[in-house]
Every structure is written in structure tokens, then in C-alpha cells.
Batch of 2 targets.
Target 1
Amino acid sequence: MPQKKTSTLPSARPASRRGRMDLPSALAESFLALIGRTTSDLPSDVERGLTQAVTREARGSQARATLETLLENIQLARTGVAPLCQDTGTLYFSVRLPSDFPTQILVTAARQAVAEATRRGLLRQNTVNSLTGESHPQNLAEGSPVFHFIPSARSTPEVRLIMKGGGSENVSTQFSLPDESIGANRDVEGIRRCVLEAVVRAQGNGCAPGVLGVCIGGDRAGGYQYAKEQFFRELDDVSPDAIVAEWEKRWLVEINSLGIGPMGLGGKTTLLGLKIGTLSRVPASFFVTTAYMCWAFRRRGLVLTPEGGIHKWLY
Ligand code: SF4
């Protein structure tokens, strides 16, 4: 739920007004604006999904009341430029990077922005030493934030960010087929069973309604990463593979008929979206990996200018 107002949204000055700001400073300012918007301003496709979900739930039902409360909180967070949830999550930056762009300068700028966003209260002090539990008060440590670089033929970087809460990350899972425990073989029915089983196991934990990202294939690590990358697709995005698109549509309906509902309290909306990607695999392995994203689906992105400013916002 949104926290009290702690900051104003960092300005994103147009490149033309940046004067002679150097590349590291301009990048840090752009990253700070990205974090500020991501933490407080839910993307319109997700908000639209929640609004549509309200109309599907019965008047006076717990499900409808829960969804209405979430929508109120989304407005409060936006108006107050406050974190949408007290768990500001793991910051996962996915960067499409031209080969000649200075990676280390970009990483340093992003880390500076994370520290500044934490100082301003846009991010909770949310990173701890795994063994001692001691806080890393600026949210900077080995593995925090997370960067994923994808080589790009574009002339400037595209930076996408999701903030992934722990509750939803905890219910992400991976199946190795065949899996006798759920009767899943290495076929379409086996994949379907994994997808449904992931949602049934979560039972609303992970703060439903959420979105499920799925990777069919890949290795273990790559499967989790590719499942998470599905979150950069908007909710109305349709898989370019007609067969996969059909599974996304059909299985989403099936999942929402399970009755788990918002926060697991019953209802017709357990998932707002199901996004499936596929990777190749070695013949000996067949992984189906799911990444769960909660209703606080904090996803934003931007295209940078060559000077490090904001050319345009994504989402
Ligand atoms: S799962 Fe999402 S909504 Fe729930 S506490 Fe974590 S970040 Fe917040």
C-alpha cells in the first residue's frame, strides 16, 4: 500500500534544456526520473486491467471491495508521488545497449540514482546482507540493483525497469518435465499443468490479481530471466506465435475460473494477464518456468538521448 508522501517526482528536463550537463550527470538524472515514476505511477494498461476487473466482480463482494481499494491506493500513490507498496522490491533494469555506449558510466549513473532515490524515500531501504541480515542502506550491493544487458543495433540505449516485490518473487517457480507430482509430461498438456499449478500453489499469495510470465524451455537460469522479461510486454500484447497466443488466451480464462480471486479471498480475477515466451532447450531438459508479478506491477521505461537525457518514455 502507498506510503506517506516522501518526495516530489524528479524532473525529467528535455534534452534541449540540459545545457552542458555531462553524460554521467544527465544519465543519473534520467535514471532518477525513471525510478521515481516507476515506484509511484502504475502503468495505464495495468490500471485499466484492474478497472475492468472491478466490473466482473459482484457488487458487495470481497473481491470487488479489494479491487476498489487497490485502485484508490494507486491514485493516492500517484498524487502523492509515494511508493505504491512498502516493499519497493528488487530493481531489475533491462537495457538494450548499443555496442559503442559506455556501459560502466551507465551502470554508475544508475547506481547513483538508486542511492538518491533511497535517500528521498522513493525506495525503501530494502537490501540486506544475505548472511547477516544487515542493511545496505543505499540499496547498493552485489546483485542490487540487477542489470540485464541486451545488445542493440539502435543508436541510443532503451532502459526498462520493473520493481519486483518479494511476496510475488517468492511464488515464482520452475518445473522440470516430466513432473510426476502434477502428471506433467513433455507435451502441451504438461505445460498447461505447470502454468495452472503455479497459480494454484500461489493461492493469492504474491498479492493477486497479478500477471504470470512463463518461459518454456531454456536452461534453469535463463528460464527465470526470460519469464521475467515477459513483464515488459503490455497486458494487451499478443504473442507473435499464433499457437502460443491461443494458449495465453485460453489458459488465462481457465485460471480465472479457479475462484482464487484478489488476495486469494475468492472471485473471478486471479490473473490480469498471462504472457508466455519460448526458448530452445537441450533434448535432455524441459523446463517450464513461471515468474509471478503482483498487482503493484511497477513497470516503466525510457529511450535515452546520446547525451543521456530522456528522448521518450515507454509505457
Ligand atoms: S507482493 Fe507486491 S503488493 Fe504484495 S507486498 Fe510485495 S510488492 Fe507489495
Target 2
Amino acid sequence: MQNQFEICIATSDHQNFAVIIAAEMESSAKARGTGIAKRTASYIAEKMLEGKAVIAFNKDGIWAGFCYIETWSHGQYVANSGLIVAPEFRKSGLAKAIKKKIFRLSRTTYPESKLFGLTTGLPVMKINSDLGYEPVTYSELTQDDAFWAGCKSCVNYEILLSKERKNCMCTAMLYDPKDHYEPEETKEDFKQHSKLYDRFMRIKQWKLLRPFLKKDLIKFFSFFN
Ligand SMILES: CC(C)(COP(=O)(O)OP(=O)(O)OC[C@H]1O[C@@H](n2cnc3c(N)ncnc32)[C@H](O)[C@@H]1OP(=O)(O)O)[C@@H](O)C(=O)NCCC(=O)NCCS
């Protein structure tokens, strides 16, 4: 997987790919036969312009994957939506790498926000849970009507309505930065910090031992005098 793809934050330079991405999202949803909120090419291009999207290419510059950020309830909630990997590049860890990148971008841009996702897909559940998301009931998600309006184009929308938005076919997952345990070892900068810490300890030990080393040397030389 490493070096096989270039994964970057999308910019205006990538707008030409919006049409391909929207088409792939639609055909993948049809192939799966499951519901998906429909995204237009212009909506995707807008996300690119806002710096709220991640795009991936293979080493020959062929478009390989995409995902974008949406905010709800005045920024209290953030969703990393529209994850898509081109069929020829699937099952090589690309979705995982894209989600990691957009997760970091979301955490940096909206450090106080809760991150959430709604999915029927096992790969996405696996990836989210590796990132620290936990399964929750729909009551824990944004109650912003604009978010739920996105489900209107989903084939399961009638089910969602019949359950009064409390339940549907998708599993809800949430990452709450204020209620989240992250082991030190999984933190990205742990290695960097531990290297700095090792260096700090070596300097400290050397400084502490130096006076004793000097004394011993003095004793050693005084023996010959
Ligand atoms: C879902 C999708 C993004 C996964 O992309 P991918 O690059 O193949 O995923 P990855 O290779 O990063 O795999 C991530 C994990 O899911 C697993 N996985 C991938 N495809 C899977 C499948 N079809 N069934 C079960 N598990 C699968 C992988 O083994 C990996 O698990 P691991 O961490 O335990 O090794 C891709 O299939 C896709 O674009 N599908 C159509 C759009 C879609 O469904 N988007 C999600 C909307 S919520």
C-alpha cells in the first residue's frame, strides 16, 4: 500500500475529477443495492474548493479514491462522508488510508466536534472502529434536519421515517473527543515524542554522571603523583 498511492487534501486543481467521482458513487450504490445519499458533481467540487475533501491517485495519476467533510448542528458534529474507492483499487488498504487522512483533517479543523458516520458497510465499520469510533443509537447523532434530509435519496428512507428517525438499516458510529480513551501507543506522534524523551534522558544522565566521572579521573591521576 505504501507509495502505491498519493493521498492529499483536494484543491481547485482537482475539480475536473468531480464528475468521475459522482458517477462512481452512484454506480457503486446501485451495484450494492443499498441506499446512499446522492451527491452531485458540483457539490463534490465545492468540497474541494473549501479544502474539506481528500483525494487519492495511483502512481500514474489515475483517480483512485475520495472522501469529504460535512458539518452539522453549527459545527458540533462532523461527518466524513462519501467515501469511495475506484473498483480497480479496492481491497488494498486505500479506504483505510483515505479515512485516516480525512479523520486527521477533521480533528485539526474541528477539534471540539463529535465525528460520526452512518453506514451499512462492513469495511467502513472496521475502519471507523480502528479510528476510535464506537457504535451508538441514532439519538447520539446530530438532530440537524438538513443532515437527515440527505437520506431522502436512499432506498431505505421509508424505513427511517417509519421508525421516526430512531433507527434504520445503517449502523451509527461516533467519535467523541471529550469521551474517548486513546492508548499512548496508538498516538501518531508517540514515536516522535519517545525519541525526544530518550534523547532528553541520555543528556540528563550524562549531566548527572559528569561530576562523578571527573572526580574518579582526578583520583586516578592523583594516584600516580
Ligand atoms: C467500501 C470501500 C470504500 C472499501 O474500500 P477498500 O479500499 O477496498 O477498503 P480497504 O482495503 O481499506 O479495507 C478496509 C477494511 O475492510 C475490509 N474490507 C474491504 N472490502 C471488504 C468487503 N467487501 N467485505 C468485507 N470486508 C472488506 C478489509 O479487509 C479491511 O479490513 P482490515 O482492516 O481488517 O484489514 C469500497 O469498497 C467502495 O468504494 N465501495 C463503494 C462505496 C461504499 O460502499 N462506500 C462506503 C459508504 S458508507
